[in-house]
């Protein structure tokens, strides 16, 4: 008789330990179905297999090895601790979005998980109170304020911004392939959205994309201008589609006018918020999405040197030949004015080399009547160097203009996390025996690791 009584006590303890995950399961169930599947005492409201488990657990306690059972309980406790700490966080956003009034949920829970759940819910301004320490009954009274309710409904979006050449695409691929595999990238470079001139516009290659889905990269008609308002409309639809697939959208690019148009809660297409003559108050600080901003920054002297090297690398990769073929197919513009250019013809490299080809001719045919062959070669070389210098100067001007716009958004209250990639770029341009390996290590430590920590915190909020 005494042995049977002890066995029942052991069974009850086992049953309580088995139920220690009820808090996490409860939140997940509410998030999924918007209903309460348990009532006081821990039994299922619609029946189920909780009935009689105490008796079966008691039998197990009488027949099983008690020491082994205690060891198993410890393992279960550790397992459930991890489950509640991580999985529940992923469901709370959905859970809170369904709450706009005070809700009370009563269920059976032990002290260990009552304390854990209280700590967890306090992050979301929710309260968990115990009505009786003796019975371990938890009354979970959850109240979501209107502000919290609105915030939780915003779709989460990671934005990687920075001046041209700062490594935004590289960082986005690092994050998407190694740390956040359920990511899709939305390109926000207003020149790279057009088809054609992949080298000149420095589009990331299919190989370097490493299977990560990209949107708005080389998709649009190169002769038709895509406006910020149109990007806002199309981008909003794409963000919704990505989040509906339960994936994380990464907005990546250096065109701050496109970034602003998509993210700002209010957009006036008649006002250029980046115009220096306009007040910083014209920048809308309210956003349409719950954003995590990563600002990849490089010191100006280092960035300037790198951009010059990048232009040379692009020319070595076939930029000159690509432009020559482009003009052979599309022809020249009637005016050299930048204001007369639209879409792809605005790309840096197009107007600079158009002047060269207009003078030299396509296929290297010199259009200088009466000049000797030597004079023609010298003239072509000078015109070529002039075009290359113009490309470098205009690229540098673009980078400084982009930095000014980013700073303006920061001054307007946008919460930008600056990631300094200067040392990685400096290492990549050194003449050591293996600069690539050293630069890669620095990039990992100074850029990738801080970015991962920031994004992880953002996703767990």
TrEMBL record:
It comes from the Eukaryota. One of its GO terms (molecular function) is ATP binding. Keywords: ATP-binding, Cytokinin biosynthesis, Nucleotide-binding, Transferase. Coiled coil: none annotated. The keyword Plastid does not apply. One of its GO terms (biological process) is cytokinin biosynthetic process. Residues 1-87 are annotated as: Disordered. Residues 1-22, 32-78 have a biased composition (Basic and acidic residues). The keyword RNA-binding does not apply. Belongs to the IPP transferase family. PANTHER family: ADENYLATE ISOPENTENYLTRANSFERASE 4-RELATED, TRNA DIMETHYLALLYLTRANSFERASE. This is Adenylate isopentenyltransferase. It comes from Cinchona calisaya.
């Amino acid at each position: 008789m005494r042995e049977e009584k002890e066995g029942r006590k052991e069974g009850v303890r086992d049953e309580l330990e088995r139920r220690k995950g009820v808090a996490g399961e409860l939140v997940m169930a509410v998030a999924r179905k918007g209903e309460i599947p348990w009532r006081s005492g821990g039994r299922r409201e619609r029946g189920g297999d909780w009935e009689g488990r105490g008796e079966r657990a008691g039998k197990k306690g009488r027949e099983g090895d008690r020491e082994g059972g205690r060891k198993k309980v410890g393992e279960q406790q550790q397992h459930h601790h991890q489950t509640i700490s991580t999985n529940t966080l992923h469901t709370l956003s959905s859970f809170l979005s369904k709450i706009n009034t005070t809700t009370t949920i009563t269920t059976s829970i032990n002290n260990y998980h009552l304390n854990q759940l209280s700590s967890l819910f306090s992050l979301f301004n929710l309260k968990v109170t115990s009505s009786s320490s003796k019975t371990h009954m938890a009354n979970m009274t959850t109240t979501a304020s209107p502000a919290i309710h609105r915030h939780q409904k915003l779709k989460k979006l990671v934005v990687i911004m920075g001046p041209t050449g700062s490594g935004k695409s590289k960082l986005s691929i690092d994050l998407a392939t190694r740390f956040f595999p359920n990511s899709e990238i939305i390109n926000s470079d207003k020149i790279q959205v057009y088809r054609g001139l992949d080298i000149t516009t420095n589009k990331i290659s299919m190989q370097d994309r490493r299977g990560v889905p990209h949107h708005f990269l080389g998709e649009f008609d190169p002769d038709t201008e895509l406006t910020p308002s149109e990007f806002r409309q199309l981008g909003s639809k794409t963000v919704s589609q990505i989040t509906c697939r339960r994936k994380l959208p990464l907005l990546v690019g250096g065109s701050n006018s496109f970034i602003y148009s998509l993210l700002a809660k209010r957009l006036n297409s008649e006002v250029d918020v980046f115009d220096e003559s306009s007040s910083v108050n014209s920048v809308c600080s309210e956003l349409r999405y719950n954003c995590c901003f990563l600002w990849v920054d490089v010191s100006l002297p280092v960035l300037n040197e790198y951009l010059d090297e990048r232009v040379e690398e692009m020319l070595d990769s076939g930029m000159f030949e690509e432009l020559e073929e482009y003009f052979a197919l599309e022809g020249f513009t009637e005016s050299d004015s930048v204001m007369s250019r639209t879409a792809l013809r605005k790309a840096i490299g197009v107007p600079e080399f158009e002047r060269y080809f207009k003078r030299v001719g396509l296929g290297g045919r010199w259009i200088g009547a009466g000049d000797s062959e030597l004079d023609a070669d010298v003239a072509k070389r000078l015109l070529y160097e002039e075009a290359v210098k113009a490309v470098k100067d205009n690229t540098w001007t673009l980078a400084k203009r982009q930095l000014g716009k980013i700073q303006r958004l920061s001054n307007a209250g946008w919460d930008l996390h600056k990631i300094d990639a200067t040392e990685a770029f400096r290492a990549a341009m050194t003449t050591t025996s293996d600069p690539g390996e050293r630069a890669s290590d620095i990039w990992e430590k100074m850029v990738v690791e801080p970015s991962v920590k920031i994004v992880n915190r953002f996703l767990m909020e």
